Amino acid sequence: MEAGPANHIPQRMCAVCRMRCAKRDLTRYAVQKGPLKPDPRQILPGRGIYVCAKPECQEKFAKNRVFRRKRKGELND
């Protein structure tokens, strides 16, 4: 089985504006037990939520906390 092309750039979607961007251009937050944790190195285990660098997206993400995930009956902040 061949690996993908050498110039492949992973894409992710901003959880706020739904725009697709290169993974390296987004801020990742790791969903683990407890509050969401910023993951600048993108290595923490767990589901990741990606937010683009636009100030309005960062502000909306931090302010609304609409993006909490339900896990085993609890909401993570």
Task: Tell me what you see in this structure.
It is a single chain. 13% of the residues lie in helices and 29% in strands. It is an alpha+beta fold and 77 residues long. The protein has one domain (11-75). The strands form three sheets. It has a three-stranded antiparallel β-sheet with strand order 4-3-5, with helices on one face. It has a two-stranded antiparallel ribbon with strand order 1-2. A two-stranded antiparallel sheet has the order 6-7. The termini are far apart.
Secondary structure: elements and pairs:
Elements lengths: L10 E3 L6 E3 L4 E5 L5 E2 L8 E5 L3 H10 L5 E2 L2 E2 L2
Keywords:
single chain, 77 residues, alpha+beta, three-stranded antiparallel sheet, two-stranded antiparallel sheet, 1 helix, 13% helix, 29% strand
| Mean pLDDT metric | 82
Structural class: alpha+beta
Give the helix tally.
1
Number of strands: 7
What's the main sheet like? 3 strands, antiparallel
H-E order: EEEEEHEE
What are the low-pLDDT stretches, counting only 5+ consecutive residues below 50? 69-77
Which sequence of strands runs across the widest sheet? 4-3-5
State the shape: flat
- Total domain count: 1
